[in-house]
Amino acid sequence: MSRAHLGLIAVFILLALVPPVAEALGQSSMIRLIGQVLILGMAAASLNFILGYGGMVSFGHAAFYGIGGYVVGMLYHHHDAGTAFLGIIPGTTQMLITVPAAIFVSGLAALLVGALALRTGGVQFIMITLAFAQMFFFLFVSLKTYGGEDGIMVRRSNELLGLNLRDVPTLYWVVLTCAAGYYLFLRRLVNSSFGQTIAGIRQNERRMAAMGVDTYRTKLLAFVLSGAGAGFAGALMVIFLRFASPDMMHWTKSGELMVMVILGGVGTLAGPFIGAGALFTLETTLGRFTEHWALPVGIILLIVVLATKGGIIGLVQRLFGGRK
Amino acid sequence: MSPVLQIDGLVKRFGGLVATDAVSLTVAPGEIHALIGPNGAGKSTLINQICGEMRSNGGTIHLAGRDITHLRAAERVSLGLGRTFQITSLLDDMTVRQNLGMAIQARRGGHSRLFDIAASRVKIWEEADEALAGSGLEGSAEHRVADLAHGEKKQLELLMAFALRPKLMLLDEPMAGLGHLESQEMIATLRATRGDAAMLLVEHDMEAVFALADRISVLVYGRIVASGTADEIRANPAVREAYLGEEDA
Fold first, then answer.
1. Quick check: is A17 in a domain?
2. Distance, C-alpha B129 to centroid of its chain
3. CA–CA separation, B36 vs B243, rounded Å?
4. Which residue of A has its CA nearest to B88?
5. Which residue has the higher pLDDT, B171 or A90?
6. What's the order of all strands across the beta sheet hosting B223-228?
7. Inter-chain contact A209–B91, Cβ cutoff 8 Å?
8. Contact across the interface for A211 and B73, Cβ inside 8 Å
């Protein structure tokens, strides 16, 4: 128990040291890259909560990620233009408002999608979540006010308690704090009564229903929490990159998140973060040699799935003496 | 005393096929009522209708005096309807103790507690250990369910069903796939628990049925053709012809 705590603290300190170390090595672009990995890791972790723990294969998760991002982008847009969304909601760049708003709106979108999609299961569930995500994608492509397919450039950084978020290391530390907080949130969640119920439903929904558990409502709650988490990540990404585009909710993004989860380890807490790091590293290194980096990535994914039971985490656990 | 379960004129149609044809039966408090019949007689359909996995096309179901005909499965469970499955249906990745804990949690509630620690809900685990103590599974509490033998799974299934403290227990072929010795154990377990809940027992194993049942109903082609005590059923010529066959001595 305490060993696990020490490990977490060590990882947090190492990640917190990234900006000074990267700057000392003259590799300050590393800060941006690792920051993005952390955010993508959060998005993948939110997907993993329903996919790995809850057994719901959502193929439209990028929709919530993108919606979270767009909330930040749109609030900036109205702030900048001095207009109001639907004539009522004024814009803002206060991070303490934009991020909670993003979490709320993407959670609401997940409630809508989940309420319908969760009436089905299996392949139909995959298809319905995918269809919804594509609907959101085309909706935002067609919104010319918000840049259409070009998206929104957020020319002014968000503000948070007097911190200078134009400064990349500061922004990175804010992201790291959010990622750490989200990790702890998920850790708490999977060990709760609710987390156990969700795990039970993954293993045998019929049995849980026979014991009187309202499986639909439980799954819907999980789906909403997961969508809200993805929205959180999307909001951070837009604040971090200062750019929101419909590509954030394209189906290939959903696929990417899923690959991260599988690569890192389905149903583990750290897996999605490791998977995000692995995929991001693969893409950038292979991308340097060839435009067709997706092919070798695909082959590597195939090998990981076939050869390691439980992704990179599973491999590490087997190499270093069994499960805890 | 008013019956725990009362079914009146229950109907289930699949297209042109009438799987449950105006079935009426009752289970009295403390009673074990066995339901027998040849394969395809509609026993599983009837069970699924009672527990709410299948909608009925007609008739009513009352549980302890309350009309549950139109309630969802989960609501029926909370009113005191328990069941075991013909094919064991457990949480395979969890241990025996965790499975039992889940059943107890299901009864106590709190599925939407997001931030408690399930492992620290002491009362649940005390009750689980209590239920395991003295059962055949005492030594396997920490075994993964996927690794259990078939007979052990059947026992766990029963323990979990009783952990919900049902008023009425639907037992869907509890002897299926058990060896002779295991069947004897199961019969003994059911006898020991007969005071805890009234039971509707669907079973092919005639030895078990005659050993346990206070009353027996015979279902053939979705219709109850006879109902009575074990002796009456044994002596009933229609039943012998339709079901027990010539080999029954």
1. no
2. 23
3. 9
4. A207
5. B171
6. B81-84, B168-172, B198-202, B32-36, B215-220, B223-228
7. no
8. no
> Average pLDDT for residues A262-273, to the nearest whole number?
87
d(CA A193, nearest CA chain B) in Å: 5
Task: Encode chain B (249 residues) as per-residue pLDDT tens digits.
Answer: 688 888 888 888 888 888 888 888 889 888 899 988 887 788 888 888 898 888 888 888 988 888 888 888 888 888 888 888 877 788 888 888 888 888 888 888 777 787 777 777 878 888 888 888 877 777 887 888 888 888 888 888 888 888 888 889 998 888 888 888 888 888 888 888 887 888 999 988 888 888 888 899 888 888 888 888 888 888 888 777 766 554 444
DSSP lists the bridge partners of residue B8 as B60
In eight-state DSSP terms, residue A249 is G
A243 found inside a domain: yes
Residue A52, in any domain of the structure: yes
What is the rounded CA–CA span in Å between residue A124 and residue B35? 37
If DSSP codes are grouped into helix, strand and coil, which group holds residue A25? coil
pLDDT of residue A323: 47
Q: Are B178 and B150 in contact (CB under 8 A)?
A: yes
Predicted confidence at residue B242, as pLDDT, reads 66
A209 pLDDT exceeds 80? yes
pLDDT of residue B249: 40
Nearest to A110, CA basis, from A70, A55, A51, A67: A67
The verdict on ipTM greater than 0.85 is no
DSSP letter, residue B19: E
Is there a domain that residue A5 lies in?
no
In this complex, how many residue pairs, one in chain A and one in chain B, have their CB atoms less than 8 Å apart? 88
pTM of structure: 0.83
Q: What is the pLDDT of residue A324?
A: 42
Question: Partners of B58 in the beta sheet?
Answer: B11
Q: Which of B68, B102, B104, B162 to mutate to test the interface with A (most CBs of A within 10 A)?
A: B102
**DSSP letters spanning B37-63:** --TTSSHHHHHHHHHTSS--SEEEEEE
Is the C-alpha dihedral spanning A118, A123, A127, A133 positive or negative? Answer: positive
Q: Which domain holds residue A88?
A: 28-253
B169/A contact by beta carbon, under 8 A: no
| CB < 8 Å to A200, chain B | 91, 94, 102
Domain count, chain A: 1
DSSP calls for A56-71: ---S-THHHHHHHHHH
pLDDT attached to residue A6: 85
**B153 in contact with A, Cβ within 8 Å:** no
CATH 3.40.50.300 is held by the domain B5-90+164-244 = yes
Q: What chain B residue is nearest to A185 in terms of C-alpha separation? A: B115
CB contact (8 A) between residue B106 and residue A208: yes
- Which among B78, B117, B119 has the least Cβ separation from residue A212? B78
Contact A193 B73 (CB under 8 A): no
| Of A61-70, A124-133, B149-158, minimum mean pLDDT range | B149-158
Dist. CA A249–CA B207, nearest whole Å: 62
| CA distance readout (Å), B124 to A120, A124, A204, B98 | 32, 37, 20, 10
Backbone angles phi, psi at A165, to 5 degrees: -80, 0
